[in-house]
Automatic annotation (TrEMBL):
Region Disordered, annotated ranges: 1-57, 399-418
Species for this entry: Sanghuangporus baumii (Phellinus baumii)
Protein name (database record): WD40 repeat-like protein
Family annotation (Pfam families): WD40 (PF00400)
A GO CC term attached to the entry: Set1C/COMPASS complex
Feature: compositional bias, Pro residues: 36-54
InterPro entries referenced in this protein's UniProt entry, alphabetically: WD40/YVTN_repeat-like_dom_sf, WD40_PAC1, WD40_repeat_CS, WD40_repeat_dom_sf, WD40_rpt
GO molecular function, one term: histone binding
Domain of life of the organism encoding this protein: Eukaryota
Composition skew (Basic and acidic residues), residue ranges: 1-11
Keyword set, alphabetical order: Repeat, WD repeat
WD repeats: 71-112, 113-154, 155-196, 208-249, 283-314, 315-359
Length: 418
């Protein structure tokens, strides 16, 4: 949560195994809005000198991102950055209780939104690129009219700090997650107004008793029929949006991990085995909704097949042991996975080969938030207390080309990469 500087969770983890499969190569995802960045927590330690960077595999198809702008203005740790769906704006939010709107093209600060009474954890753009939702430790979600800088509505109903928030692609639904383990579903009109199911007044239409620990991320699939959530309890869950039923549960641990089992009767009258799992920090559907990307406190990012519930690929090389660091897809100039890191760097992996193709350096503290532009080869990254900057990176390679709906056949992974 955003109470005392962002995204710091001190859980220990035991699993270092790579859960990658050599089954099949994912298709190129289609364009979509980025998922919400996960929430913050207690004060971070003094940043240490980052270790040497891992080996980067460069090819003629590798990206060539360079620093374009450095944005400053927040006075406390930045918890999330998100590009608007039309690509015209970049929103950032912070433990300083504000939301800031920037021009990613010029680096200019356009507007500062004030109203929350405690630190903010997450933001999500509506599809009209005018309305924006912000989640806060003050237990509320605010819907903003960004054009006029005014709050449209304040959503109340969570019993504790709101960690994460996400609009669906048509902005008719809003989902939020809380540190009490609950997920709430709200119905929203296209004008930014929030309504109770078949009624007005911004009431919550559904509450899912989802997890046994902090909910760190929530995300809709493309048609909003499913919600994926993750938590410090180490579980990733997929929910039916209409019924609220939990359809699947994924775990971040491997078969080789030493597990202890705790048997608990769940809210759906089924038994759930809870394992000694690394805490799940961030999760999102791929833009084509066939895959799920997740991060955890074991220095790994995993790509899951939604249909089979199998982990297809694991990406390693960055550092993620303490903080809730997000990862996202880049589907404009190439098929990359992008993530922040506790070593002050931004990492890019090839989606298929899992090789690190570029490392972006310049931040002076933990990079907790990253976002990719919807139509251009542009990345935004944000950092902690010793830095407090947002950096805009632009690929100096060929112009962005919208991805094809299907991928050409590629070689299967021939060996595990740890």
């Amino acid at each position: 949560m955003a109470m005392d500087n962002q995204k710091h969770f001190m859980e220990d983890t035991t699993s270092e195994s790579d859960n990658s499969s050599t089954e099949e190569d994912p298709e190129i995802p289609e364009k979509s809005q980025s998922a919400p960045a996960p929430p913050p927590s207690v004060s971070p330690p003094v940043p240490s000198i980052p270790p040497p960077a891992p080996v980067v595999v460069r090819t003629r198809n590798s990206p060539h991102y360079e620093l374009r702008h450095t944005l400053r203005g927040h006075t406390d740790s930045i918890s999330a950055v998100k590009f608007s769906p039309d690509g015209m704006f970049l929103a950032s939010t912070s433990n300083d209780m504000t939301v800031k709107i920037w021009s990613p093209m010029t680096g200019e600060l356009i507007r500062t939104l004030k109203g929350h009474t405690k630190g903010n954890s997450d933001i999500s753009w509506a599809s009209d690129s005018v309305h924006l939702a912000s989640a806060s430790d003050d237990r509320t979600i605010r819907i903003w009219d960004v054009e006029h800088g005014l709050p449209v509505r304040v959503l109340k109903g969570h019993s504790d700090s709101v960690f994460c928030v996400n609009y669906n692609n048509t902005s008719t639904l809003l989902v939020s997650g809380c540190i009490d383990g609950d997920i709430k579903l709200w119905k929203a009109a296209n004008d930014g107004d929030i309504k109770l199911w078949k009624a007005a007044n911004g009431k919550c239409m559904k509450t899912l008793n989802a997890h046994l620990d902090y909910v760190t991320a929530v995300h809709f699939n493309r048609d909003a029929s499913l919600i994926v959530s993750c938590s410090l309890d180490g579980l990733i869950k997929i929910w039916n949006t209409t019924t609220g039923q939990c359809l699947k549960t994924l775990t971040e641990a491997s078969a080789e991990a030493l597990w202890y089992l705790l048997l608990k009767l769940s809210h759906f009258n089924t038994f759930t085995f809870l394992l000694s799992l690394p805490s799940s920090q961030h999760v999102q559907f791929s833009p084509n909704s066939k895959y799920i990307l997740s991060t955890a406190h074991d220095n790994a990012i995993r790509l899951w097949d939604y249909q089979t519930s199998r982990c297809l690929k694991t990406y390693r090389g960055h550092t993620n042991r303490l903080y809730s660091i997000c990862a996202c897809f880049s589907v404009t100039g190439g098929k990359w996975i992008v993530s922040g890191s506790e070593d002050h760097r931004v990492y890019l992996w090839d989606l298929q080969s899992r090789e690190i193709v570029q490392i972006l350096e310049g931040h002076e503290d933990v990079v907790v938030a990253v976002a990719t532009h919807p139509t251009q080869n542009m990345i935004a990254s944000a950092s902690f207390n010793s830095d407090l900057s947002i950096r805009i990176w632009v690929d100096r390679g060929p112009p962005a080309v919208p991805p094809a709906s299907t991928s050409p056949p590629l070689k299967e992974d021939t060996q595990e990469k740890r």
